Amino acid sequence: MSVMGASAQSAREIEQRAKIIATAERLFREIGFQKTTVADIARELRMSPANVYRFFSAKSEINAAVARQLMSEVEQAAQGIARGPGAAEERLRALILSNESMNAARYVADRKLHDMVEAALIENWPIISEHIDRIDAAIEEVIRSGMDAGEFVKGDAQLAARLVHTACIRYCHPRLMVECADRPIPTSAQMVEFCIAALRGGRCDLGPSAALPR
């Protein structure tokens, strides 16, 4: 096969995989990832299940591919903010709040997708640790630039990023977002200000709205 022919075949395979993932995601939203079968996906695409298995050796691979696609959208947004313009503290605020908003839209508002991500967390799918590492890296990039610019005190940027991510975990972890829905304080905005104050090495004034109810 010529190089051009091999390239065209590769492009078709990438396109077909994308179609399978998109169809699976739609069915997951409609009937749930556990109820969706490879036969269902094949039927929607007007192909045989055997053809789907040419691209994914098992249904679990399709599950992971859908979850990976959803998480990659969040990661790309985080990386875009981390590498974008503005002061480090502005980018850190935007990154954490964007992460919360995108995860809420994907996994909290849509219960069926929430079930899939919860299964991924419980079963410790490899994509979960990869996603955490990528978000950690985006936060670290922001913090390191803040340290270099003198906005934040010098220190271990990698450790600081993990501390910030851990402090804000309830605003991006699908299960915690649901379980903590009836405990709105502290808000994500308040937690980010707390983290920024720590990174500056100073005090954190959250204002009267941060007072906890008695």
Give the low-confidence spans: 204-214
- Which range does the strand content fall in? under 5%
Q: Roughly how much helix do the residues carry, as a percent range?
A: over 70%
Tell me the domain tally. 2
Structural Rg: 21 Å
| SS content category | mainly alpha
- The CATH architecture category of the largest domain equals Orthogonal Bundle
The biggest sheet, with number of strands, parallel, antiparallel or mixed sense and barrel status, is: none
Q: CATH homologous superfamily of the largest domain - what is it?
A: Tetracycline Repressor, domain 2
* Inertia-based shape: elongated
Number of strands: 0
Distance between the termini: 74 Å
Number of helical segments? Answer: 10
Highest CATH level, the class of the largest domain: Mainly Alpha
Mean pLDDT value: 87
Order of H and E elements: HHHHHHHHHH
CATH topology descriptor of the largest domain: Tetracycline Repressor, domain 2
Write the layout of secondary structure elements.
Layout lengths: L2 H29 L6 H8 L3 H4 L6 H24 L5 H21 L2 H12 L3 H24 L7 H11 L6 H6 L8 H13 L14
Helix pairs in contact: 1-2, 1-4, 1-6, 4-5, 4-7, 5-7, 5-10, 7-8
Polypeptide structure, described:
The protein is built from 10 helices and no strands. The chain has 2 domains: 57 residues, Homeodomain-like (Arc Repressor Mutant, subunit A), CATH 1.10.10.60; 145 residues, Tetracycline Repressor, domain 2, CATH 1.10.357.10. It is elongated and about 60 Å long. It has 214 residues and is mostly helical. The longest helix has 29 residues. The termini are far apart.
